[in-house]
Amino acid sequence: MTGLTPIIETTNVADPQAGYRELQERWGPVAPVELEPGIPAWLVMGHHEICQVVRNEQLFSRDPNNWRLFTDGVVAPDSGLGPMMFPRDNAYFADGEKHRRLRGPLDDGLESLDEHRMARFIRATCTDLIRDFEHQGKADLVGDYAAVVPMLTVAGFFGIGRDQGHELRAALIALFSSAEDSAPAAHNLERILSATMNARRNVPTDDLTTAFLRHPNLHNDFEIQQSIVLMISAGYETTTSWIAQTLRLMLTDTRFAGRMRGGRLGIDDALDEVLWRDPPMSNMPARYALVDCELAGAHIERGDALILGLSSANNDPRVHTDDSWLEVGNRSHLAWSAGPHACPAQRPGRMITRIAVDTALHRLHDVSLAIPADEVMLLPSPWTRCPASLPVRFTPPVRNS
């Protein structure tokens, strides 16, 4: 097909739902889109249709080795799609028994986390970061805060300290950018994780690195390392977006901004609204058709890529109404996807986000956005709608003499 809509027109825009509506009016709940020039895919936008895809591993695989344009060499090796759509040896890109084996350590590790201890660690991390800039009276709550809290927190779960957490973040950013510095970044990433794994072999602790080293499902150091990378990178990307979007909402929407002055809607309401309106992943890659099939009238060919339009599905009138009172407590959204690959870290993700937002709003006095709300720019991405920056002003604390 020619003249396909670029998928980024559903993310890097002021009104993403308008883009989804336009596609649905033309094509229905499954529409052809362009991921990058010359690389088509299907965007699945209906709630029911996404559930059909994610719950049927016999028809739709998570393994990119089943993506025809990838195996035929049509997608360039340095494509920006690589970080999210090229195969890696971890649970995210596996199906069936292999997926269950590799996901087991993630589920078990997350279940073993002490929530009280975790909450203290997250709050201490947030407080330390705010102390770095609170006397300046201004900050960027994305670059200085929302983009740092998840990395330091999730890295901390693996016993990686703050200094190495910053180093790890820089390595992952460079690695996933597919830029010229990706090779040195990969080496640095491997060095940090190998050192941490070796340290835990010599002196085991109760962190997730030790748990992964001991887990019978992980058969070698490479699988252990890739599982750590998956948890850290996934936690970093999605939680950064959730924190940033929740802070943006509470600073710009009068229903939530009023809460800081006694209004009726609070942080938990804002967290849920973001999951509905701007979920951490707007469009989630990918599933690959294992056979020719039909989905909501669209003729899918074997090897086609299907992208899950989670943000669109959350706006599906079959599951979501415009009545805010009817929506109280409604968590039938697909922000975490569904099926075997549903996000395993919903509880810790919510804890990190809630504490990060709460700590910022309580420690930064008289905080307000330093630019008009409609000037908040988004990071260009076909997958997320994360604010590029949130410049704010606030009253610095009084220094002790």
From TrEMBL:
CDD domains (alphabetical): CYP_unk
InterPro entries per UniProt: Cyt_P450_B (IPR002397), Cyt_P450_sf (IPR036396)
Top-rank lineage group of the source organism: Bacteria
Family classification: Belongs to the cytochrome P450 family.
UniProt protein name: Cytochrome P450
The organism of origin for this protein: Actinophytocola glycyrrhizae
Lineage, opening ranks: Bacteria, Bacillati, Actinomycetota, Actinomycetes, Pseudonocardiales
